[in-house]
Amino acid sequence: xxxxxxxxxxxxxxxxxxxxxxxxxxxxxxxxxxxxxxxxxxxxxxxxxxxxxxxxxxxxxxxxxxxxxxxxxxxxxxxxxxxxxxxxxxxxxxxxxxxxxxxxxxxxxxxxxxxxxxxxxxx
Length: 123
What we know:
The chain has helices at about 5-25, 35-40, 45-60, 100-110; strands spanning about 30-35, 65, 80-85, 90, 115-120.
């Protein structure tokens, strides 16, 4: 986080955080991307950019969150999708090529892509 040097800096940060919280509450969708060194080496950065672009193209609001190593290095890039009232789903090996199908099936159609699931957490 950048160092705050003025009251205006604090106000801008507050507005940004409030906007992010509003997005989470209103959409109920958070996409979590593992960005540990293992994930980055496997292409997680490119996957994150592809997800952001796909959401933009489809005009889908979701909160994007990056985290460190999730612990399943062999299944990187890992992407979790958490939606209000639904179990958190962890998908493995989500390359840029898989992103359009993931967004289409999980977020648009509401169907879990079972072949790519590596974990589930109850809500």
